[in-house]
Amino acid sequence: MIRQAVVWGVVAVVLRLIVVPPESCPPVNAATVRGAISEGSAWLVRGQRDDGRFLYGYFSDRDEVSTDYNYTRHAGVLDALYRAGRLRAADAGLRYVLDNLVRHDGWTAFVPVGEYASAGANALLLVALMHRRQETGDDRYDGLARRIARFLVAQTRPDGSVLQFWRPDTQRRVPGVFGMFSTGEVFYALALMHRAFPAEGWERPAHRVAHYLATRRDEAEGYAIRLPDHWAAYGLSTLAPEGLTDVEADYGRWLAGYFGYLVRFESQHLDGGVIPWEESGSGLGTTGEATTALWRLAGEDRRLADLRDELGERSTCMAGILVERQVPAADPNPLARGAWFARGYTQMDDQQHAVAALIGTNEVLR
Amino acid sequence: MSFGFLAAGFLAATNAGRVALAFQADRPRTRSAALALLAGFGLVAVAAVFADDLLDGLSISPESFRIAAGLVLGAAGVRTLVWPHPASGPFAAILVTPELACLAVSFGADEATWKVLAAAAVALPVLVAAVTRPRGPMVLAAQFLAALQLIVAVALIVSGIRDV
Q1: What DSSP string describes A65-80?
Q2: Nearest to A20 among B68, B96, B163 (CB)
Q3: Which alpha helices (H) appear in A65-220, and where do they start and end?
Q4: Phi and psi angles of residue A59, each rounded to the nearest 5 degrees, phi first
Q5: Would residue A9 count as lying in a domain?
Q6: A118: which strand partners?
Q7: Mind listing the pLDDT tens digit for each residue in A170-229?
Q8: In this complex, how many residue pairs, one in chain A and one in chain B, have their CB atoms less than 8 Å apart?
Q9: What is the CA radius of gyration of chain A?
Q10: ipTM, 2 decimals?
Q11: What is the pTM of this model?
Q12: Nearest C-alpha neighbor of B18 from the set B101, B103, B92, B86
């Protein structure tokens, strides 16, 4: 009898402390979400340099800034700033891009000096241009958008896979190199092109990439598990109004399950616990972005309508977690205020993804 | 979840082969055997009826608890595969196990109570046979049901991860 009581006790304690700690979703409303968006995007704006680039990272424990840079993240930050309504800073960042364009074979690509042209960076740049167009109604960059989209199509192979790089010195694509997220980024960018210019046929390469993502990418590119690809979630929700294939809809359902699980996991580890866990702002943000994109998708595609309410709840839960984890607006350190830290470090994409997730949840809360 | 899956879960978690082995080892009185069945079914009934309240009180979503139930079921299934003979203890408590309780809570949180109880009832005649006529390859039966328990466990974990 005592032995059985001990077994029950051990099982209960292990379950509670390790397997299923309580799920905690801090309460959040539209006003607090808007405040968090404002503070997070303000961190990016404060860190912008004269040449349009941004502060890359900051170590709070050493009070030291990082001198690294990444141009895919530069493009991603531009997109977050356009979506957050920070047009002046975003346009300043865009000027850096416009000074570093390469033209070749009918297309244009953003290629900083000494770098290869990256499909991921250019896809996010195109996403930023599309959101700029939506925010401002200004179509002055439509020609550039089309030329960048042609670069992305040129990087896309017949099976829907996307080669990550093009080398300026050899003027050729780099064979056999694929980015972990650039395929999803290209899919999303081409889906947005189709939304903006529906008569131009961008949906064909978009569906080709989507089919590859849904059926072959993870195995073909050597990933042990299917990647939780939030860019693919964005792409599916963007294509949904014109109709998804059954394969794409099934992929959307799979993504919804995976990201829903990730939100639950994060909500179980918000207050620490036996196993220390501290997710970065970009990790939390990408999960929130995907959840909201899939919430939008579930509202568009009736095959996924049963997921909508729960995805809305998960999106709101993640927004609560993000607001709780953000450095408060009252913090005196301008390099920390409004940022999301993990293990004493924050990086530009932490703010990019967290802000983008909160912008999405703002839509859910409306 | 299909009724068949629920029934398979209860058949596996109650493991009639293991119950028969315990019966053979302890030779309990009829009253103890009846009490064991009553205690097991009572555990399932209470867990299924109060599953929602319990999980709400613990702030755990049914999907997350499904993963927990799967892990408990899996661990118990491995134990039975390796050591099919149950440890000594009061026979009346043979079915009062963490794996049966977790399974019933998980099923109860996901499905209607009547459906869960009906699925649990499918295991009853098998258990009655195990305590009234314990014969045949009982070790093999215990291991077969433990393997089934592992399959149910994996299905619960995968479903807990794949559901929003």
Answers
A1: EE----HHHHHHHHHH
A2: B68
A3: 71-83, 87-98, 119-136, 142-155, 182-196, 203-215, 217-220
A4: -95, 110
A5: no
A6: A165
A7: 999 999 999 999 999 999 999 999 999 999 999 999 999 999 999 999 999 999 988 999
A8: 60
A9: 21
A10: 0.77
A11: 0.88
A12: B86
Q: What is the CB neighbour count within 10 angstroms for residue B85?
A: 14
Tally of CB atoms within 10 A around B124: 15
Cα first-last separation, chain B: 15
Q: Helix, strand, coil proportions of chain A in percent (round to 5)?
A: 60, 10, 30
Give the pLDDT score at A219: 94
State the virtual CA torsion across B140, B11, B131, B105 in degrees, nearest 10.
130
Asked if A62 has any chain B CB less than 8 Å from its own CB, the reply is no
Nearest partner of B152 among B6, B2, B3, B44, judged by Cα: B6
Best CA proximity match to B25, nearest among B126, B142, B121, B148: B142
Q: Compare all CA atoms of chain B with the CA of A314 and give the residue at the minimum distance.
A: B164
Which segments of chain B have a pLDDT < 50? none
Is A79 a domain residue? yes
Total number of domains constituting chain B: 1
- Structure token digits, residue A289: 């972005």
What are the φ and ψ backbone dihedral angles of A102, each rounded to 5 degrees? -125, 135
Q: Copy the structure tokens of residue A346.
A: 């924050």
User: Phi, psi (5° rounding) for residue A243?
Assistant: 105, 135
Q: What is the largest CA-CA distance in chain A?
A: 80
Contact yes or no for B71 and A257 at CB 8 A:
no
Length of chain A: 366
Q: What is the pLDDT of residues A123-143, one digit of tens each?
A: 999 999 999 999 999 999 999
Neighbouring C-alpha atoms within 13 Å toward the C-beta of A240: 25
Residue A319, domain CATH? 1.50.10.10
Assess if residue A145 is contained within a domain. Answer: yes
In percent, how much of chain A has pLDDT > 70?
Answer: 99
User: How far does chain A reach from its first CA to its final CA, in angstroms?
Assistant: 56
Q: How many CB atoms lie within 10 A of CB A135?
A: 15
**Number of domain units in chain A:** 1
The predicted pLDDT at position B32 comes to: 87
Question: In the structure encoding, which two tokens stand for residue B103, read together?
Answer: 């399974």
For B55, the closest chain A residue by CA position comes to A22
Question: Can you give the residue range of the structural domain that contains B106?
Answer: 3-162
Q: What is the distance in angstroms between the Cα of B58 and the nearest Cα belonging to chain A?
A: 6
Domain that holds residue A79: 23-365
Report the C-alpha gap between B99 and B12 in whole angstroms. Answer: 10
Nearest-by-Cβ selection for A23 from B61, B67, B163 = B61
Give the residue from chain B lying closest to A2, CA to CA. B89
DSSP character at residue A342: B
Residue A10 maps to a domain: no
Which pLDDT tens digit goes with each residue over A286-316?
A: 999 999 999 999 999 999 999 999 999 999 9
Is residue A285 within 8 A of residue A322, CB to CB? The reply is: yes
Query: How far apart (Å, rounded) are the C-alpha atoms in residues A85 and A177?
Result: 35
